[in-house]
Amino acid sequence: MKAKGRHDPCVLPRAVPMVDAMVALVLADHLLLNHAQCDLINK
User: Fold this and answer.
1) What is the maximal distance between C-alpha atoms in the chain?
2) Coil vs helix vs strand at 43
């Protein structure tokens, strides 16, 4: 088996921004879920 494409062994510089973005998406998703269920944002 041969790998095709770019395979960089050093993923650490890209891991931190990726984790930050994923946390932001999860928090935004939970905020929207809370708004849809409770409607606490406008009150």
Assistant:
1) 59
2) coil
Give the three-class secondary structure for 21: helix
The pLDDT assigned to 20 comes to 94
Alpha helices in the chain (DSSP H): 12-38
Tokens of 32: 């929207």
The predicted model scores a pTM of 0.61
Q: What's the start-to-end Cα distance of the chain, in Å?
A: 59
The token duo for 13 is 């510089």
pLDDT, greater one: 3 or 24: 24
Q: Which two tokens stand for residue 20?
A: 């930050």
Residue that is written with structure tokens 């041969």 in the block: 2
